[in-house]
Amino acid sequence: MESNIVFSELKPGKLKSVKEGIFKEVQAKIHLRGNNWRPMKYNQHQSMVYMVARLDREYADLVRVFHEIKARDPEFKPGTLFDFGSGTGSVMWAANTVFKNSIWEHFLVDNSVEMHDLAKLLLHGGDPDGKPHFKNVYFRYNMPETLRYQNDLVVSAFSLFELSSKSERLEICEQMWKRTKPGGYMVLMELASKTAHTVMMEARDHILK
Ligand SMILES: C[S@@+](CC[C@H](N)C(=O)[O-])C[C@H]1O[C@@H](n2cnc3c(N)ncnc32)[C@H](O)[C@@H]1O
C-alpha cells in the first residue's frame, strides 16, 4: 500500500479501490492479532523487550481504567492489591498513581522469574540496593492455594489471554473473584481483539453465573 496518498486527489474509481485495499489490510492485521496465540515464557530478553514495547502503553491504559473506578466510586480507597500475571508491575504503578497513599500491601503473582526480577528492579528505581517506591510488595510464582484474606483491588491485565486453555482461564478468574473483598473491584483487561473480547465475555459469564 502506498503511504503518501492524497485522498482528495483520487478519481472515484481509484478512491474506491484504495479504500477496499486499506480495508483488507486492516482486516488481515486484526485477524493476525486475534489468532496468533502461542505459549509464551518470558526470559530475560523477552521481559526487557516487553517492557520497552508495552509498559508505558499498559500503564496508561490501567491509569485510565482506575480513574474510571475513582470517578464512579470516589469513596473507594484500596488498601490491598492482588495482581495476577503481574509482569513488570505496571498494575502496581498505575494503581498507586490513581489511589495515592492508599495501598499498603501488594501481592504480585507471575510465573516468570525474569519478569519478577525486572519488576523488582523497577520498584527499586533501577538500583537493586535502592529504596523501594512502594511498601510491602510480595512476589509469588503461583496463585496461592490457601485463601487467608480478600483484597480490595484484584487485577489481571493482559495475562489471561496468555493462559493455555479456557478451563485454566476460568479457574484463575474464579480464584481471583474469591480473593476480591465485598465492596472491592476485580478488573480484567486485554488488548482489543475479537478473540480477547470472547475471553472477557467467557470470564464475565462464568463469574456472574
Ligand atoms: C502480557 S504479560 C502482562 C504483564 C503485566 N500485566 C504488565 O502489565 O506488565 C503476561 C504476564 O503473565 C505471566 N503469566 C503467563 N502465564 C502465567 C501463569 N500461568 N501464572 C502466572 N503468570 C503467568 C507472564 O509471565 C507475563 O509476565
TrEMBL record:
Gene Ontology terms for molecular function: iron-sulfur cluster binding; metal ion binding; methyltransferase activity; structural constituent of ribosome
Range of residues in the leader sequence: none
UniProt KW Transit peptide keyword: yes
Cellular component GO terms, alphabetical: mitochondrial small ribosomal subunit
GO biological-process terms attached to the record: translation
Keyword terms: Iron, Iron-sulfur, Metal-binding, Mitochondrion, Transit peptide
Coiled-coil stretches noted in the UniProt entry, renumbered to this chain: none
SUPFAM superfamilies for the chain: S-adenosyl-L-methionine-dependent methyltransferases
Pfam family, one: Rsm22
Domain of life (superkingdom): Eukaryota
Cellular compartment(s): Mitochondrion
InterPro entries on file: Mt_RNA_Methyltransferase, Ribosomal_Rsm22-like, SAM-dependent_MTases_sf
Official protein name in the record: Methyltransferase-like protein 17, mitochondrial
